[in-house]
Amino acid sequence: AYVVADPCIKCKYTDCVEVCPVNCFYEGANFLVIHPDECIDCGACEPVCPTKAIFPETELPEQWKEYKALNADLSTKWPNIAEKKSALPEAEEFKSKDGKRSLLDP
Ligand code: SF4
Ligand code: F3S
């Protein structure tokens, strides 16, 4: 499955949602996750994310390994999102910031 990692936090552009053929994105207050059992590995979401937050799980950068389990867990708790919406107001400011894990709203 594909995994949403750190760069999405406090941005949430949702371009990924618009292209996903199986609607397997789930939405928190300032982050999105992919349900690993629903993702069909089509790869459509990866190139459209303005923050480059999405990776195939096998190519997830070492420092973001924990996001695989986070996507699996949070996707069972958060509501589905099937339509693109506006990015967060602070998205441009946080787009290129690193180490946003502590800012993730549970
Ligand atoms: Fe959806 Fe395809 Fe991205 Fe999986 S890889 S989340 S199926 S767009
Ligand atoms: Fe997040 Fe990128 Fe989607 S910022 S909401 S993973 S388009």
From TrEMBL:
GO terms for molecular function: 3 iron, 4 sulfur cluster binding; 4 iron, 4 sulfur cluster binding; electron transfer activity; metal ion binding. Residues 89-106 are annotated as: Disordered. Its cofactor is [3Fe-4S] cluster; [4Fe-4S] cluster. Pfam families: DUF3470, Fer4. Residues 1-29, 30-59 form the 4Fe-4S ferredoxin-type domain. Coiled coil: none annotated. Residues 89-103 have a biased composition (Basic and acidic residues). Gene3D superfamilies: 3.30.70.20. It comes from the Bacteria. PROSITE patterns: 4FE4S_FER_1, 4FE4S_FER_2. Signal peptide: none annotated. Transmembrane segments: none annotated. Keywords: 3Fe-4S, 4Fe-4S, Electron transport, Iron, Iron-sulfur, Metal-binding, Repeat, Transport. Ferredoxins are iron-sulfur proteins that transfer electrons in a wide variety of metabolic reactions. This is Ferredoxin. It comes from Myxococcus virescens.
